[in-house]
Amino acid sequence: MRYEHRMVEANGHTFHMVCAGPRNGDLVLMLHGFPEFWYGFRHQINQLAEAGYYVVVPDQRGYNKSDKPQKIESYTLDQLRDDCEAFIDVFDREQAAVIGHDWGGAVAWHLAATRPERVKRLFAINIPHPADMPKIFMKKPTQIIRSAYMMFFQLPKVPEKLLATNHFKYMAKGLSLTSKEGAFANDDLKRYQSAWLKPGAITGMLNWYRALRIQMRRGFDEIDLHVNVPTTILWGMQDPFLSKRLARESAKRCKEVDVVFVADATHWVHHEEPEIINYLILKKLKNEKQGIKPI
User: Fold this and answer.
1) Once rounded to an integer, what is the mean pLDDT over residues 288-293?
2) Catalytic pick from 53, 83, 209, 271?
3) Which residues belong to any copy of the AB hydrolase-1 domain (predicted)?
4) Which domain holds residue 163?
């Protein structure tokens, strides 16, 4: 499959996007998380495009070849959500099926909850609704330990210096250590390192976490919303960062939801078990197109 690389103006910034599939196909918007970029969905793009969908995978703001504003305020959930709405507008569509992993999934949840008319179906991969994280911290203190890296990322400058050591050698090693063997090949890690080395990238990436301080000051009530969009939650059960209880908590807020746990997979389930993830996504998209509803 030949990819089209585009530079697009949206929501006041310039974004790099990878597009594939027939342009008249139903739009599928894929949102990567930390510390990935469009390449993180390389196992999904071709199968979705070959099935007739027009697949759009942006480097989100702060990442790889897209704009990297350096102010923390540029990375609030509302700003990131508005980027996604602008992406849909760029392609002259009213709606898209939205697939998000990690931070990209948090943005997808927020888009579906606050702009449901723009989301045909939501797929959240190993990420809870952003309002459910504080609830789990209260109910399950062990989640605080698993998420301790998020607190470290709040520090100014220190995380950038530490992570960038030896051309991000240890950050690349972190991907390998938290995933199943073979999920990230050496050539893959080199691509990631190249993306992280771009000027301003690591600060932009970390500012997604730092913007949580702004949300904490505002309170989480404003984003603690029900989701009326048909939703599928896909979850690798061996995730070292996030408890599977978060998936169940997020499912409670959904009007129509399926939760699928993949037993022998981690936070990086879309890399480790792409056949399973692609099958589940395509099955749901095809059922949606044919008007088949779950029993």
Assistant:
1) 69
2) 209
3) 27-274
4) 4-290
